[in-house]
């Protein structure tokens, strides 16, 4: 191997690395004269290079030993790239239509080489800000979530398989600790990393810190996040972890992956759609009031859960006599009992989804990492009003989630 110890790559050293790595050099036909390399890592953590040549292309993603958006004062394990590569391969086997293929992984360099999602693919969040409709989004995301969550759970796997994989992903503790901090802790206390649209939301930030019921609910969700190894979850499934065209949906960046509660992935995706809904008034203008687009977002929220529910339970029914050890056929072979088990499981998962979704919205308003949906609203007072409406709904959802019986109830409450 050309690089025997970790060092951050730049464009020149990346070319040398590609030359020394046969699987990568073959992707571009070993033609280095016309290579175009562009660093596009606009996230919080990593370097991301797009490599394009006349004979082929790929993406190189390198994990840094600190949080990129903060700097070396916030150390972060490079090992996250190992778990990202593992999750991409595992989820890619289960849902190859919606996960980019991994070509190469170098643990020493914390470096992943994978398929380049060529234009017109864009980050979903940017599409939502621009008001673009994606007719297959709910269909594709429900495919991805139902397959990855079902097939890595005890509904399909033996306890021996499950515990082996849980143990493997327990090593991603650094990223889990980061999630615990930024989602379940920092927004509910004074933290140097918190910020918000001040002074407009100063009172709202204090109200969150003083809300005892909110803190009780977030503590319960934190406990589930830390303790419940339900399935191999993406761990950061917001709308910037999805790349789209009108006909293609690709899930990227599972560096936070571990065995956790299924509702965390579902909640992240649905919660970010809710957040996008409340941001739309800030992007409206005389030429487009965004009302019809808001209705599309609401339909997508409904369809995402309803299609997931349908597909997940269909997989469960298909494999009910299979190797899964959560509900042994010898005990749960009564159709009436099976239905009761499914109803309870899906009801609990639905309420988890709403809770985690609400927590995701709150952290994007008061925590360390904000989102383009709100941040691109230039007028601070208008941005704050959109955020306040999202916050109001998120607090309701977090506190009253067990009272919602269907996703239609949730959508009705959003409209109200």
From TrEMBL:
<keyword id="KW-0547">Nucleotide-binding</keyword>
<keyword id="KW-0808">Transferase</keyword>
<keyword id="KW-0067">ATP-binding</keyword>
<dbReference type="GO" id="GO:0009086">
    <property type="term" value="P:methionine biosynthetic process"/>
</dbReference>
<dbReference type="GO" id="GO:0005524">
    <property type="term" value="F:ATP binding"/>
</dbReference>
<dbReference type="InterPro" id="IPR009212">
    <property type="entry name" value="Methylthioribose_kinase"/>
</dbReference>
<dbReference type="GO" id="GO:0046522">
    <property type="term" value="F:S-methyl-5-thioribose kinase activity"/>
</dbReference>
<dbReference type="InterPro" id="IPR011009">
    <property type="entry name" value="Kinase-like_dom_sf"/>
</dbReference>
<feature type="domain" description="Aminoglycoside phosphotransferase">
    <location>
        <begin position="37"/>
        <end position="270"/>
    </location>
</feature>
<comment type="similarity">
    <text>Belongs to the methylthioribose kinase family.</text>
</comment>
<dbReference type="InterPro" id="IPR002575">
    <property type="entry name" value="Aminoglycoside_PTrfase"/>
</dbReference>
<comment type="subunit">
    <text>Homodimer.</text>
</comment>
<keyword id="KW-0418">Kinase</keyword>
<protein>
    <recommendedName>
        <fullName>S-methyl-5-thioribose kinase</fullName>
        <ecNumber>2.7.1.100</ecNumber>
    </recommendedName>
</protein>
<dbReference type="Pfam" id="PF01636">
    <property type="entry name" value="APH"/>
</dbReference>
